[in-house]
Amino acid sequence: MWVLNNTSAQPLTFLLTGIPGLRAAQIWVSIPVCLLYAVALSGNSMILFVVLREQSLHEPMYYFLSMLSATDLSLSLCTLSTTLGVFWFEAREINLNACIAQMFFLHGFTFMESGVLLAMAFDRFVAICDPLRYTTILTNARIAQIGMSMLTRNVAVMLPVVLFVKRLSFCSSTVLSHSYCYHVDLIQLSCTDNRINSILGLFALFSTTGFDCPCILLSYVLIIRSVLSIASIEGRQKAFSTCISHISAVAIFYIPLISLSLVHRYGHSAPPFVHTIMANIFLLIPPVLNPIIYSVKTKQIQKAVIKVLIQKQLQI
Question: What residues form DSSP beta bridges with 94?
């Protein structure tokens, strides 16, 4: 068996895969994929721009929203070049270092999004359950600390994952099953014992999304209890309406993630292209839908976006 060690002089190269079994249709599939990338990049860039520009949006809720948009923007950019390269130009080759770098940022920004959603849940919890102390609890310094702690957590959990992937040796089969580098996909090609890599991957997953999801659920249990204690129906509706956008963002992040995990675990009989399409959907749905949801459901964002677009039209 031909074994490739990443310490050898010969550069180790992997082959990315578009959609298994639908190679002839890839160029047509690439059109909606490209449109989704365009929507994700333009929508999140617009949210970032209006939050930074409009003084009225310099509040904790919108600072966290800008973090979510920056994360979604980065997540889209992580896979843009390799995905469209495979679909359009059959540019399938990627060396090990580039693959590991993409894997680091891909998983890192996914975990970052989970952390931002938890921070936004905390923001809604404080706003509804302790509104009088909202501005004193969520100061600019505290928000910056929350952002830095999420970034530090992601780097801390991903560095061991990356370092142990570098130690692996790979067999003659170096064909990945996605159009980007995915940790589970990469370590399965190893000829050497990858148990510690699997353990590190699971630890990274459970210490980020596995921790964040129960905390988000707990925050909403407390929010619902607080909302139900409000005497007037109108007050309850107003309080709960401020959470609709965030609940939607949580749903479009965790539901595809759980669905993808179930397909990988139990869908062995499903065609390979089902796994690939679901993986691409998981990466594209949150960056595409988050800016749309917040633009439609949040009046302040809606007004700021309209204001910016009108000003652009007047300048033209």
Answer: 14
